[in-house]
Amino acid sequence: MSRIGKMPVPVPSGVEVNIDGSRVTVRGPKGELTQEFSPKMDIALEDGMVEVERTDEERETKALHGLTRALIANMVHGVVEGYSKTLEIHGTGYRAELQGDKLVMILGFSHPVEIVPPDGINFVVNPRANTIVVEGPDKQLVGQTAAEIRAWRPVEPYQGKGIRYVGEHVRRKAGKAGKAI
Known about the structure:
Layout: E1 9-10, E2 16-20, E3 23-28, E4 31-36, E5 41-46, E6 49-54, H1 59-80, E7 83-90, E8 95-99, E9 102-106, E10 113-115, E11 122-126, E12 131-136, H2 139-151, E13 162-165
């Protein structure tokens, strides 16, 4: 039995969970998330808890058991508290600003980079600290959007310029002559 899969997911007050076969919809103060799960999982709402049980003992079904429970728990957490990723910009002349809800970044290209947020995603920019915060209820979409922003100018190891996650460690290289930094 999956240790993660057999744990029930508590549903806090103010959160509504609808289960329609293998489709689960979670609605809360931060938004609404819907996801389709494998029909090999039996998902039920009992006494304010979401229970996930598997229908057979096949290898694939066992693997999906814990995954399904974790995804439902992430959906519940997302509509209650939300998720966020913080990116910081390093480099002379590199900066970001908001124009409406659109993120506009100057990253050393001949043109500014404009990113329109997907539905459910908000950007918060602090120009003094040169940070970008990506917020939203969907954990996967927040991480994907942050990764797409970072991909425009990943950190390079020689001077440390680029976009990185807060707390990300970048291994620095000595350079051509092997001089100490």
